[in-house]
Design a protein that fits this description.
The structure is a single chain. By secondary structure, this protein is mainly β. It has three domains: 25-123, Immunoglobulin-like (Sandwich), CATH 2.60.40; 179-278, gp9 (Jelly Rolls, Sandwich), CATH 2.60.120.640; 313-405. It is 5% helix and 37% strand. The chain has a six-stranded mixed beta sheet with strand order 13-15-17-21-22-19, with no helix packed on it. The longest helix is centred in the N-terminal third of the chain and has 22 residues, at 2-23. It is elongated, with a radius of gyration of 45 Å.
Length: 406
């Protein structure tokens, strides 16, 4: 009888210890809450995480499950929120659960299923460290990408849909992936992959470009940049929208060495808006169009612009001549003006700035009149007034407009 009583007490004690051990063992769970926006996917700082049994429903889900901040399951968590990087952690008993994510400026989502089965600390959404998660099938959780990138830069994780078919998300480095149209290609069509990137027209001829509607381009906020870097003579890139207008007109002509940014008009649903600027520091001159007497033509590695009969002005000015008496058969000393850059081989053109035929000394006469001689010296315009009459002359005031040419 005593043996039976002791056996019963021992079994009861073992049962209590087993029960206490089970209740004291929780399993940890960690995940990241995400905020989805047109600009990309980002950690949902401060988001509210609601954890419920797998049989619950709704967003936020209900009824809720008991979760704790410690493995012993002694400190309940009343409200679970994500940290600044979207991380959240808790402990719970073995079982199947779901969680939902809600909050200010957060697009609510869920339920997300998970299990805590007691193996190696519980099942914590299997995936790759530092990689965002997604569902490759309805019952499994995977990571995008398979291995997080290690190249320096910023990355945007999301979807790139083609042909209206659902596909797995990917993480792409944020940058402009441009496209070039080269050679003798005369036509082109803007592609949906040109969004937020550039198309460079670098051929030798003009190009006619078709611009589909945003619906065809599968992007209501489509935006692209077109560069005309063609190398022909005055070659253009002419953009013709399908159905839409562009800047209110039927076409847009992009001149050589010009870049145009094209985007959907936020005010007019069927119009494209553009902003065009010159491309500086780029482009190659291959031909110079000239008119006589200037000569030019095709340029390969070098070229010349020439003008055999053209002149260049070196210096110019106006000189008021002296009015002192000039004796017969004598000349004044040189009356000068600074003419920087003048050489003795240059030519001087000089004229009165007004009619001088009524001014003393310059009135036509059978007895003669004053004569003006002009000539260049280094950096200087020179003028001498000479009296070739038989008597002294005191000349009136006159001014010469002069120019040194080469």
């Amino acid at each position: 009888m005593k043996r039976l009583i002791l056996s019963s007490l021992l079994l009861t004690l073992l049962g209590l210890l087993s029960s206490a051990g089970t209740q004291a063992q929780g399993f940890g769970y960690h995940d990241v809450a995400w905020k989805f926006s047109p600009g990309g996917t980002f950690p949902a700082s401060g988001a509210t995480i609601t954890v419920c049994p797998a049989t619950s429903s709704g967003v936020p889900c209900a009824p809720v499950a008991s979760i704790f901040s410690d493995k012993a399951l002694t400190v309940p968590i009343v409200s679970l929120t994500a940290d600044a990087k979207g991380n959240f952690n808790f402990y719970a008993a073995v079982g199947d659960y779901i969680y939902t994510v809600t909050g200010t400026s957060v697009t609510a989502y869920g339920p997300i299923p998970f299990s805590l089965n007691g193996g190696a600390g519980g099942t914590i959404n299997p995936g790759t460290q530092y990689a965002p998660t997604y569902y490759p099938t309805s019952a499994t959780i995977g990571s995008i990408p398979g291995a997080p990138p290690t190249a320096n830069g910023s990355y945007l994780c999301g979807y790139n849909i083609s042909g209206s078919v659902a596909s797995a998300p990917s993480c792409d480095q944020v940058s402009l992936s441009s496209r070039a149209v080269t050679g003798a290609t005369a036509t082109d069509t803007v592609l949906y992959t040109d969004n937020n990137s550039g198309v460079f027209y670098e051929g030798s001829i003009s190009v006619a470009v078709s611009l589909p509607t945003p619906t065809t381009l599968t992007n209501s906020g489509f935006f692209t940049a077109l560069d005309n870097r063609t190398t022909g003579v005055s070659t253009t890139v002419t953009v013709t929208p399908v159905t839409f207008t562009i800047n209110g007109g039927a076409t847009l002509v992009i001149a050589q060495n010009q870049r145009c940014l094209i985007q959907v008009d936020p005010a007019i649903a069927t119009n494209w808006l553009t902003s065009c600027t010159a491309i500086t520091g780029n482009g190659t001159v291959t031909n110079i169009a000239t008119t006589s007497p200037i000569t030019g033509g095709p340029i390969t590695t070098t070229g010349t612009i020439a003008c055999a009969t053209c002149t260049t002005t070196i210096a110019s000015g106006a000189k008021a001549l002296a009015t002192g008496a000039i004796s017969s058969a004598t000349c004044t000393s040189a009356q000068t003006d600074t003419a920087t850059g003048t050489l003795t081989t240059d030519t001087i053109i000089a004229t009165f700035n007004a009619d001088a035929t009524g001014v003393t000394g310059y009135i036509p006469s059978t007895n003669g009149m004053l004569v003006i001689f002009v000539y260049p010296t280094a950096d200087t315009f020179n003028a001498k007034v000479c009296n070739n009459t038989t008597g002294s002359i005191t000349p009136g005031a006159v001014t010469l407009n002069w120019r040194v040419v080469r």
